[in-house]
Write a structure and sequence with these properties.
alpha/beta; 5-stranded mixed beta sheet; 8 strands; 141 residues; 33% helix
Length: 141
């Protein structure tokens, strides 16, 4: 039998159920694979901070592919981020896009993610729903 060396998994709808919960069998299976030497990588559109709680619940240290591949990092037990690779948008471009959206679609939700932070222009219903779902707090920016 071959030994599993690497597990890369999405979170929402894959590791966690539709209520955002990890099933006990998932936790047990991941922990067993890691105990046998497998590396676990979490991959998601979420931020690293949005994935950190999942890694804690799984009882693992994990490399995280965040923001749909824009950032690869790991966090330690204190949630300190170590970035391996990132594909950031230039700040000037982000500001231009934000200004255009605010002008053309004034009711749109504007969110900016940077490393471990989630910045929002205002805390509306969508932002609150998202924050509750991924257990992440925002910063007004």
């Amino acid at each position: 039998m071959k030994t599993i060396k690497l597990i890369v998994s999405d979170i929402d709808g894959t590791l966690v159920d539709s209520h955002g919960r990890l099933l006990p069998a998932t936790i047990t299976g991941v922990q067993a694979a890691v105990a046998q030497g497998a590396k676990m990588v979490l991959a998601s559109a979420r931020s690293p901070k949005g994935m950190f709680g999942i890694a804690q619940q799984l009882g693992i240290n994990s490399t995280m592919i965040a923001y749909n591949g824009a950032l690869t990092a790991t966090t330690d037990a204190n949630d300190q981020l170590t970035v391996f690779e990132e594909r950031a948008v230039a700040p000037e471009l982000a500001r231009s896009v934000q200004a255009l959206i605010a002008q053309e679609w004034p009711t749109a939700s504007i969110n900016i993610y940077t490393n471990n932070d989630w910045l929002v222009a205002s805390m509306g219903q969508w932002e609150q729903q998202e924050a509750d779902g991924i257990r992440l707090s925002t910063t007004r920016g």
